[in-house]
Amino acid sequence: MEFSELIRTGRAEALLLPGPGQSTVRGTLCITSHHLLLSAGHGSPSDLWLLLHNVDAVEKRVAGNSGTITLKCKDLQVLQLEIEGLGETLDIASSIEALSSLESVTTSYPFFFRPQSLRLGDAEDLYPPDHFYQQVALETDAWRLSTVNRDFQVCASYPPALVVPRGIGDEVLARSAHFRQGGRFPVLSYYHSTNGTVMLRSSQPLQGANRRRCAEDEELLRAALALGGQRGLVLDTRSAQAVKQARITGGGTEAKAAYPGWKRLHRPLERGRPLQDSFVRLVEACTDPSLSMDRWLSRLDGCRWLTHVKEALTTACLVAQGMDREGVCFLVHGAEGTDATLLVTSLAQLILDPKCRTMHGFQSLLEREWIQAGHPFQQRCAHSAYAQGRPKHEAPTFLLFLDCVWQLSRQFPLSLEFGEGMLLALFEHAYASPFGTFLCNSEKERYLCEVKTKTHSLWSSLNQSKERQRFCNPIYSPNPLALWPSVEPQSLQLWAGKVSFPVPLPALSIGSALTGFLPTPNSRPFPPMDSST
Amino acid sequence: SSSMASAATPKYNSRSLENDSIRRSSRDGFTRDLCEEIPRLPGETRITDKEVIYICPFNGPIKGRVYITNYRLYLRSFETDSGALLDIPLGVIARVEKMGGASSRGENSYGLDITCKDMRNLRFALKQEGHSRRDIFEVLTKYAFPRSHGLPLFAFLNEEKFPENGWMVYNPIEEYRRQGLPNDQWRVSFVNKRFEMCETYPSILVVPYHSTDDDLRKVATFRSRNRIPVLSWIHPENKNVIMRCSQPLVGMGGKRNKDDEKYLDIIREANGQISKLAIFDARPSVNAVANKATGGGYESDDVYHNAEIFFLDIHNIHVMRESLRKLKDIVYPNVEESHWLSSLESTHWLEHVKFVLTGAIQVADKVASGRSSVLVHCSDGWDRTAQLTSLAMLILVYCLITACVNCTVFKLESNTSPCFFQRIGHGEKNHADTDRSPIFLQFMDCVWQMSKQFPTAFEFNEQFLITILDNLYSCRFGTFLFNSEYAREKEKVMMKTLSLWSMINSDKGKYTNPFYTKELNRALYPVASMRHLELWVNYYIRWNTRMRQQQPDPVEQRYMELLALRDEYVKRLEEMKMTNSAKLTSPSASSSAPSQMMPHVQTHF
Prior knowledge:
By secondary structure, chain A is α+β, with helices and mostly antiparallel strands.
C-alpha cells in the first residue's frame, strides 16, 4: 500500500493553540505516513510530533480562509490546530482521518521505527516462554511445561508454552480445550510459594443447556486441586444470572457434581460495552468545561468508574485472601477468559507476590498475564474515549487494571518499584505506540505478523538506564508482605493523571520535587526515526 | 474458624487481615499489668474510675475500665493488652447524655452517650443495678464543662514544662515592622489600648496616617460592634493593602456616615493610585440585603462612589455547622458506601470550602495585580472575614509561612481574632448554642487543600494541622481560649497558661514537612475547582478503623534519608572545591570562597 495516496496535502502553515500544559507553536505542519509534525523550524524543542495512530477523533471547523482542526487523542490529550487555507484544512483533516484509521498491523509505525539505541530482537530473551515455568520449578516439581499449543492448534489465543499439572498428558489438555470456549483450558497462572496454593485461569466450560460434561477437563481440575490443597473455589467473574444466559448459547460454568472439591463463587465484574461507556462518561465529565461545579461529585459517581475500580480490587483481594489466609486454590474465569479474568489474576499476584512489584517483575507479569495470555489489545484499544460511532470490541480493561495498580501505589507508596509515570506510559503505549509490544490480539497473530523480529520491544526501551530512571519510584523499598489495600470508597481516588482537566493543577508535586534528584527527563522520549515517507 | 470455601458470601476486609496479625504479635508480649497507673500530665489529677462496656462502633462491645481525670477520659480494655482504647481530652466532649433507663431491656441499653466535637461519638454501657452511672455522669459533666460549674479550665492547672516559650513567637509590633510599618501612609494607633473603642479588637491597630484617633472613633459608631476598617497586610511592592472590618450600620433607612465614607477614601488613596477601592463582602448578596433589617448592610455604589462591592457567596456559621453535621452523618460511625460521592456532594461541605478558597483567591489577586486595595467584611467581621484575610495572606505571603512553621496560623489568626470561645464552646455545656460553628476547622481544611496542591510549599505537615485542631478543643493550652485579646488579657492567659506553640516548637521535627523547598518564591494560587478539592479523609474519617492510614510516614522518612544523603554529597563537593581552590589561589582569597560557592552548588546527581 502506498501511504502517499492517502496524504492529500503534506504541508500547511499552522498554529497550535495552547492547551493545559502545552505552549503555542506556530510553524509548518507536515503529514507523513505515521506522524503529524508541527515545526517552528530548525528542530525547535517545542516541535510537535504526534503519532497519527494516537488520533481518536478529528473535528474540523472552517471559517473564511482558515480552519481549526481539533485532534482528540487516544491518550486523552486534545490538540487544537489553526490552519491557513480552507482547502488545506479539509485536506489535512481527511489525510489524518484516513491515516489514523488504518488497521493493517504490518504497515503500522512499529514496523518502521528504528531507534539507534536499540537492536531488533534484543528483548527476545527478556521473557522467554518458559520463564514463568523456571520460576515455578524452583519451588515445586508438581507442574510441567506443556507445548501442546506449539503451533497454536489447540488454542488460538494461548501462547505456545503453558504450565499444567505434571500428571496430565497433552491429549487430556487437548480434550479439555475442546470443552472450553476458544480452547482456553485451565492453566497455572500463579503458584503461591508460601503455602503452595495455586491460581488457575481458563475460559468458561461449554456446558450448554443439556449440561455437557468432559471427563478430561474434570481430571485436569482434580489433578490441579490435588497439587494445590484440598479446597478449590471457581471464581466466576459473571453473575449467576449471566451464567444462566450463557448456558443457552452453549457456555456455562463448572457443575458442582462434576468437580468434587470445587465450590463456586460469582463476583460479577463489568466488561465490554458498559465498561467502555463508563470510561467515555468519565472522560466527558472530566473535560466538560460547562459542568457546574456543585454537580461534579455526583456526576463522577454516576460514571461508576470508581465503582469498577473498587469491584476489581475487591475481587482480586478476595482471591488473594483466600489463597494466603485460607489455603484455597482458585480457578478464575468469566466467558472468554481474556478480560475480567486477567484483571483479577494479575491484580491478585501484585497483591501477594513481592516479585511482581519490581520493574522487571511487573513487566514480566504484564507480558505473561496480559500480552501472552491473549488479552485482545488491538480490539480493546482500537479506540479510546473520544471516538465517534458505535464501539465494536473496545473496552478499557487494561486501563482499569492500571488504575487499580495506581490505587495500590497510592496506598503503598514505597512498595512498587515503578512510579505513576510508568503506568501512564503503559496506558499510552497500549493505545498507540512506536513499539510492537501491544500490537495484535494474541501470540499467534504476533507470530504471523513477525512482530518479535520486525518491531522493537517496549521493554528493551524501558530498561535502558535513562528511561528506567524516569519510570522508577525513587522511594521504593522492597516489601516482603502482601499488600492489603483499603477498598472503601473514601480510600479510592480518581486517577487524575490520565485525564486533563479544563483547569489543571499547578505543576508542582512531590514527584517534581523528587525529580530534582534525577537528571532532567527527556521531554520527547521517542523521536520518530523512520524513513517510510 | 471462618472458612472462605464454605462461607456463603466471603467478604474482603483489609483491616481484619491487619488486626489479625497485630493481635497475634501482641499476644506474645502479654505481661501488662491492668491496674497500671494511667498517663497523666503534670497538674492532672485522677477523679474517678469505673468498669464499663465500651460500645465500639467498629469492633462491638469491649469490657474495660474508664478513668476520668480533670483533663482526660481514658479507657483500658480488660480483653486486649493494647494499652489505651480511648485517650480523649475532656474538652473534646460536646455533650453527655444518659441512654436508656433503669427499666430498659436489651443488652447494653443502659449507659452514657457522649457526643464529641471532633467527628465522633462514644457510647458506654453500665450495669443497670444501683444507679451505677449517676456518679460518672456527674463527674463527666462537671469536668468536661468546668465553666458551667464554676471550675477553671485545665489550661489554668496544667503544669507542663517546655524548653520553648510559645507566647514569644508572635509580637504584633515586630510583625508590622517586618511589613515595613509604620510608614508615611500608615501609622500604629493606640486608640484601642485599653480596648475602650472595640472590645473584640487587639490593642494595637494599624490605620491610615491621615486619620486621627478621633476620626477612628467616629467611624466606629457606624460599624457593627465598632470594628472599624484596620490594616491586615500591606503588599511589599505595590503597597496595596488588605483591610478588614465589620458591616456598616446602614439599616433599612439607608443611613450614611460622612466619616466612614471619608475614611474609606483615605484608604483608597493611600497606595497612591486612583482606582476604586474593592470591597469584598463575604456574604451572599441576599444575606447582605437581609442584614439591613437588623441594622446592618453593605456599602452601596451610589453612596461610596469610589468603591466597588463584590459578594463572595459564603454562607453563614449556621449553614456551615449544618453542613458539617451532615458530613458527620455520612462518615461516622460507618461510611456511606453506596453512592459515596453523591452523598458527599449532598453535604455541600466541599462546596463551602470551595467558596471560601475562591473568595480568598479573588482577594489575593486583587491586591497582587496592583489595581487596588481591598476591604473585606462579612457581618461582624470575625468569621468569614478572618478566613478570607488569613487565606489571602497564605496565598501571597509565603515568606511568612517559611519564617517559622509553628506560629503561622497563630499570627494570622490572632491578628484577626476570631471568637474561639463562642464558636468552640470551651468548657461550656450548652451544646445547642447557635454560636457554635466549625469556622476554624473550615479554615484549616482550606489550608490542607492548599498543602495538597503545593506539597513542597509549606514547612508544616498534616500532623501539624491535626494537632492544632485537636488542641483547639483540648483546653490543654491557652492559645485558643477566649474570644479576643481583651478577654485573654483579662484572664491573664499568657501568664497562667501554656501556649500550644511551646509544645510544637519543642518538637519541631514531628511537624515539619520534609518535602518543603525554600526556593519557592512566589504567590501560591490554589485551584478551587471542585475537581481538585478532596475530602480530608485523614481528619474527618480518622476514627474509622477500616480507613487505612495511607502510610505518609515511611515516605517522609525515606525522603529525609535522601535529603541527608544529598546534604552529605553537597558537603563533600564543598570540601573538594575547598581543597581545589586552596591549591589554586592564595590563602587570603580562599577564606571567602565557601560562602560564595554555596549558591552554585547544584543538587543533580
